[in-house]
């Protein structure tokens, strides 16, 4: 049913809202490109590139990376062959200038089809972020309370060591939520005015959110 979905989607939401987890699941079920700017930046950091070194100073403090850096990176990514028919942008746009640049880059026949806002109360976000652990090898995401591994600190999927993202420390989390409120939340009105925005209650189990998401994306 879903394998032929031609969605060009933006997932909007605060850090910890579950955009990345759900985007991964959708991309496993449906043939589309999952474009996560956070994952792309972390790959740059890991590779030791100049872009990665520049981005890291912002990311570790919980600040957004400058617009032009991100806009250039996404423009290049959505030109790639795997991102022609369908994609999910996870974590982009995050500011009004980024949203305007995206609009300018998409013409009539490849315009956005859905903008989905993941709604989660702020106290829940805090708990999700502080307890999140990521596998250093396969990228699987766990949580010390909500989704614990059988053996503490070891990934159930591949047996490798779990790490905590450097921006999941409480100091950086506060700044990320502040950046979300001041710079990203205004995008809800931006897309709301165009009639493409759909909200999903993401304070429910991942399976329930996933089912609703697939229906919304039809
Ligand atoms: P989260 O949504 O949980 O904060 P991400 O993995 O999407 O995590 O992003 C991690 C960090 O990468 C952000 O805090 C920010 O520094 C940087 N980043 C990712 N996407 C963008 C973007 N579109 N604009 C600016 N910075 C970004």
Characteristics:
218 residues, alpha/beta, five-stranded parallel β-sheet, 9 helices, 8 strands, 16% strand, binds adenosine-5'-diphosphate
Describe the structure.
Strands 2-3-1-4-8 form a five-stranded parallel β-sheet, sandwiched between helices. A three-stranded antiparallel β-sheet has the order 6-5-7. The chain is of the alpha/beta class and 218 residues long. The chain is built from nine helices and eight strands. It has helices at residues 19-29, 37-47, 50-60, 67-77, 96-105, 122-130, 170-184, 186-192, 206-216; strands at residues 8-13, 33-36, 87-90, 114-119, 132-135, 141-143, 162-163, 197-201. Helices cover 44% and strands 16% of the residues. Bound molecules: adenosine-5'-diphosphate (ADP). The site of adenosine-5'-diphosphate (ADP) has 18 residues, from helix 2 and helix 3. Adenosine-5'-diphosphate binds at residues 15-16, 37-38, 41, 58-59, 62-65, 70, 91-92, 94, 98, 167, 176.
